[in-house]
Target: Fe2OG dioxygenase domain-containing protein
Amino acid sequence: MSQDSKKLKRKNSKEVELSNEKLSKPKYGRVPSFPHQKIWSRCILMIGVVTIVWYNSKAGKEIIFAKQKDVISMKNQIIECSNDFKNDLIKYPKCMPDKCARIVTDELITSSETNVLLNIAIDGLKYGGSDGGASILDLHSGALSKGSTFINIYSIKKAQKLFTHNDFSVYKNVKNKIQHAIAHHFGIDVNKLYLTKPTFFSRINNKPAKTTHDEYWLPHVDKITYEHFHYTSLLYLNDFDKDFQGGRFIFIDKHNVNTTIEPRKGRVSMFTSGSENLHAVERVTSGTRYALTISFTCNIEAGITDPVLIG
Model:
């Protein structure tokens, strides 16, 4: 090949590279990148899938797992752990359950303990309340629903003497009972299970929703909503079909099946927090529903201490 031919080839090659560079280079500068695009895309996809599952399941079969009128010593439903739940717990091998499940018992918490907790919820929530149908009270942070936002109940002078040392002692004792029950039923080391946030009282009525915090009926997975949740528990503080209508707890399963728990005063439900337990709360149509959510994590760094009454 002659020198002239080689020079011509190199020239043509450079022209092609320059042409390609112009085509790939944005006309108005660098293309912006958004690191959270994938996360948001996944969230949007999850919401879409959950919505489809929810509306399909409404026309499906319903299994009443725990009726309000029944007194249940202990009842469980074994389910397959989701991959997301198992993969997350690889980091915490002593916290991996023997099997994923839903467990209900009416014999763990006494009626006197339940009454103390119900009074805490009623008295505390009097100082706040959402504009919509769902309000919460968190004794750990002091968070209390108020209008469309939250306030700190401990900053309210009238509320500073609202709770007693006995109230907080009962709260701690109930938490300890549930923590040990979860460890026992799921076959894990109780010392590797830590209370986490949010742990809160809830009050639900039939007011129309005003903010996203009021939309309690939307299907969700606890581990997605709250990153550090591994085990979720609910203590019902009053009765379905007596104190309120609606408000049943519904697990949304495959093949258009709903597995339903009817709240009973003093009833505790416990379940793994992964996507194997997609769930929702049925809309309350009348009355007021009270419950206490107590959540646990296997991540010691996400653990919280028991609330302490100052004074």
Remarks:
- DSSP finds six helices and 16 strands in the chain.
- Residues 5-9, 14-57 have pLDDT under 50 and may be disordered.
